[in-house]
Specification:
Structural class of chain A: alpha/beta
Strand order of the largest sheet of chain B: 2-1-3-4
Shape of chain A: globular
Mean pLDDT of chain B: 89
CATH architecture of the largest domain in chain A: 3-Layer(aba) Sandwich
Number of helices of chain B: 7
Distance between the termini of chain B: 27 Å
Radius of gyration of chain A: 27 Å
Shape of chain B: elongated
CATH topology of the largest domain in chain A: Rossmann fold
CATH superfamily of the largest domain in chain B: Glutaredoxin
Low-confidence stretches of chain A: none
Bound molecules: flavin mononucleotide, FE2/S2 (inorganic) cluster
Number of helices of chain A: 21
Order of helices and strands of chain B: HHHHEHHEEEH
Number of strands of chain B: 4
Radius of gyration of chain B: 18 Å
Helix content of chain B: 40-55%
Low-confidence stretches of chain B: none
Largest sheet of chain B: 4 strands, mixed
Strand content of chain B: 5-15%
CATH class of the largest domain in chain B: Alpha Beta
Largest sheet of chain A: 5 strands, mixed
Number of domains of chain B: 2
Distance between the termini of chain A: 68 Å
Oligomer: heterodimer
Structural class of chain B: alpha+beta
Mean pLDDT of chain A: 91
Chain lengths: 586, 167
């Protein structure tokens, strides 16, 4: 059955029964029941907007409904094709991907923005589910693994472990039940690659998971998606439902005797739950704390059963590899890092956003050719890759190839693909402090090096940023960082010192300026700077005074304004709103 | 973590019959699913905006799970709250991209306009101000989320205007 439109109905509201009745009645009255599919979902997110529906393909959300205006929506929107604007919930539209630059190759992102993620037929038209059919009907699990081995695909969730090898461990493990999990926790601040794939091409991930399940012999899969991604969760719900309807999930798929189904679980705002053992604890309904490995999930994972866990992007690559062959995939990238990788380019570049490039591309190419160069043509200072467990890479490595090994050599990691560009106005000590604050906050508290060590490091960094730095602080940070790296239980603690150690290594002079001269060269650290208004430039427009959050600027209209440094909190709003650039930092 | 009262407030879901019925429905639909505690707590948080101590007691009895376990889960994950929030939730993104593109300045301005600090609710119960982790809209940094609206490229001087829409 081909539906022209889909309506998601939230069953969270008390009145949802009446709404559903009104919806179905109106559809029948206009004889639309075969053209419009109504899908009930547990929730559409915000309970304050209930009762609500979302109409696809347009993705229009109508909120705070009554049975009467549901009838109105059916008549106007679904019958006549006119939007009912006053019931619409206005939200930023999901940005379409811009045309790829010459350096980009789209494998994982090939369908994003091109197909309707809520219509499985669009995906099927792009050879969707053919790889699964091929695996189930023509290939043994061993043959699938062999193809994966040839492709050289390595995990896209951080560590870069060969995917085929991980699968083979889980395949060989014995157990009465096995599981596959898709890690969609994407906790790295500054990263949104997985989100776009889940929202734009959910079936590629479902198909990849189903193939993995076939290889290892699992019947059940879980998507673990962070709660901050409500649209991704809804899209997945619809996609799974449609895959079931088409017999691509469920029992005896393609008549092969293979059974597989998927359930979605939501995260609840804990970064460490991206770590695989913590994630499994979270699915089990516990505090998401990691545990020591071994045993690895392949032996004893979810509910102590053999489990394979991969990242969203890892799975999304799988169908293409089976269809086009491992050789094709291996023809992209470097010797040890094959294929493409998505990066979320953010920070101080002209074109921020999601890109997919072959591995081995240089940082310079990403920043200047793909990202369009630094914002306002300022000077490049560093790029931070790998999120809070990654490091900052300075200018001298601009021509370094981006692959797993090289990034590791310069003190960073690939991570899941965060790529935050920093310019001369970014203070590296402040950035190190920012990341330490993040991991300190997210440390689960189970092991001492991470729990106590990150707090001590944060205290030292805060002191340095606030002008209380002492000689010996840099060495203390290095020493502590080494202990934490070696002694922590999971990747969070082991990687936590990276942002600090890498910035000390490449930007030691900035640390020294803070400690010895009590100066912040990038003019960011608030305790070390002062804002002043240049009396010769000020035109007395009063804009700064009106926008100051602490009312510390005085001056009459058309007269020179003055900032009171004792009250000023150095937020910089005055300099942002000044029409004549009269506010300077000293 | 705020101090949590053991007193039962008059509008607590355990004493308001319709809300209680809703709680029961969520409990019944999920109690036999594996990993039920997280599922139930996530749904209740979504529904009511918080999970009070009396609610925790009730869930503990219903799911036959120790209260300490429930409390442990609630305090572990940052999206759970134990006290009610204002009518609108203002979350300022403090992910890396937003941080380097002016997130802290946005917070300063919001604190001024709303007259509350991060984590607090305005006296008229209209807004709760908080910070959040990357919401995945980094290319539009700095980002503020008001309820489910993602607002990108926020300028401090526009904040007062932005808030007007939310009553
Ligand atoms: C603190 C921490 C956070 C992590 N967060 C994520 C994440 O958000 N997404 C992800 O796929 N992997 C994350 N990982 C890596 C996972 O533990 C795991 O290695 C990965 O999901 C395996 O998938 P892959 O082999 O496909 O890369 C994290 C690891 C650690 C230590
Ligand atoms: S850092 Fe704010 S949306 Fe990603």
């Amino acid at each position: 059955m081909v539906y022209r439109a889909h309506v998601l109905l939230s069953s969270a509201a008390e009145q949802s029964g009446e709404i559903e009745q009104a919806l179905l009645d109106s559809l029948y009255n206009l004889n639309l029941q075969d053209e419009v599919q109504v899908l009930e979902v547990a929730t559409l997110g915000n309970p304050r907007l209930e009762p609500q529906i979302v109409v696809y393909p347009e993705g229009i959300q109508y909120v705070k409904l009554t049975p009467e205006n549901v009838q109105h929506i059916v008549e106007e929107h679904l019958y006549k094709g006119r939007l009912v604007e006053d019931l619409m919930y206005v939200e930023e539209p999901v940005e379409p991907l811009p045309a790829p630059s010459t350096k980009e190759i789209r494998v994982v992102l090939r369908n994003i923005g091109k197909i309707d993620p809520l219509n499985i037929e669009d995906y099927i038209a792009e050879n969707g589910y053919q790889a699964l059919a091929k695996a189930l009907t023509e290939m043994t699990p061993e043959e699938v693994m062999e193809e994966m081995k040839i492709s050289g695909l390595r995990g896209r969730g951080g560590a870069g472990f060969p995917t085929w090898l991980k699968w083979s461990f889980a395949q060989r493990a014995s157990g009465d039940a096995k599981y596959v999990i898709c890690n969609g926790d994407e906790g790295d601040p500054g990263a949104f690659m997985n989100r776009r794939v889940l929202e734009g091409d959910p079936h590629s991930v479902i198909e990849g998971m189903a193939i993995a399940a076939y290889v290892i012999g699992a019947e059940k899969g879980y998507f673990y998606v962070r709660a901050e991604y409500p649209i991704a969760i809804n899209t997945l719900r619809v996609a799974i439902e449609q895959a079931r309807e088409y017999g691509l999930l469920g029992e005896n798929i393609f008549g092969s005797g293979f059974d597989f189904d998927i359930e979605i679980r939501m995260g609840a705002g804990a970064f460490v739950c991206g770590e695989e053992t913590a994630l499994m604890h979270s699915i089990e309904g516990k505090r998401g704390m990691p545990r020591t490995r071994p045993p690895f999930p392949a032996q004893s994972g979810l509910w102590q059963k053999p489990t394979n866990i991969n990242n969203v992007e890892s799975y999304a690559n799988v169908p293409q590899i089976l269809l086009k062959g491992g050789e094709w995939f291996a023809s992209m990238g470097t010797e040890k890092s094959k294929g493409t990788k998505t990066f979320a380019i953010a920070g101080k570049v002209k074109r921020t956003g999601l890109v997919e490039v072959p591995l081995g591309i240089t940082i310079r190419e990403i920043v200047y050719d793909v990202g369009g160069g630094i914002l306002n043509d300022k000077k490049f200072k560093a790029v931070q890759t790998g999120g809070p467990m990654g490091g900052c890479i300075p200018e001298q490595y601009l021509d370094m190839p981006v692959d797993y090994e090289t990034l590791g050599k310069v003190g960073s990691i690939m991570g899941s693909g965060g790529f935050v560009v920093m310019d001369e106005e970014t203070c590296m000590v402040d950035i190190a402090r920012f990341f330490m604050e993040f991991v300190q906050d997210e440390s689960c508290g189970k092991c001492v090096p991470c729990r106590v060590g990150t707090r001590r490091m944060l205290e030292i960094l805060t002191d340095i940023c606030e002008g209380r730095g002492k000689p010996g602080d840099i060495e203390r940070l290095e020493e502590l960082g080494e202990y934490i790296r070696k002694g922590s239980l999971c990747g969070l603690g082991q990687g936590a010192p990276n942002p600090v150690l890498s910035t000390i290594k490449y930007f030691r002079d900035e640390y020294e300026a803070h400690i010895y001269d009590k100066q912040c060269p990038a003019k960011v650290c608030r305790k070390l700077i002062e804002y002043k208004i240049d009396p010769d430039t000020c035109i007395g427009c009063t804009r700064c005074a009106r926008n100051c959050p602490v009312n510390c600027i005085s001056g009459e209209a058309k007269e020179v304004h003055v900032i009171n440094p004792d009250v000023c909190i150095r937020c910089g709003i005055c300099s942002q709103v000044c029409p004549v650039d009269a506010v300077h930092i000293y | 973590m705020n101090v949590v009262s053991t007193e039962i407030m008059p509008d607590d879901p355990v004493v308001v019959p319709e809300k209680k019925a809703h709680m029961d429905a969520i409990l019944d639909a999920n109690r036999d699913r594996p990993g039920a505690t997280m599922l139930v707590l996530t749904l209740l948080q979504e529904e009511f905006g918080y999970v009070s101590l009396p609610m925790q007691n009730y869930i503990s009895e219903q799911l036959k799970v120790p209260l300490s376990h429930i409390y442990g889960v609630l305090t572990f994950y940052s999206s759970f709250r134990m006290t009610p929030i204002g009518r609108h939730q203002v979350n300022v993104c403090m992910g890396t991209a937003c941080y380097v593109r002016g997130g802290p300045t946005v917070i300063d301005k919001l604190e001024q306009v709303l007259g509350v600090k991060v984590g607090e609710t305005t006296e008229d119960n209209r807004f709760t101000l908080d910070i959040c982790r990357c919401v995945g809209a980094c290319s539009q940094a700095p980002v503020v989320m008001i309820d489910d609206d993602v607002i990108g490229r926020v300028k401090p001087q526009d904040i007062a205007k932005l808030l007007r829409k939310y009553e």
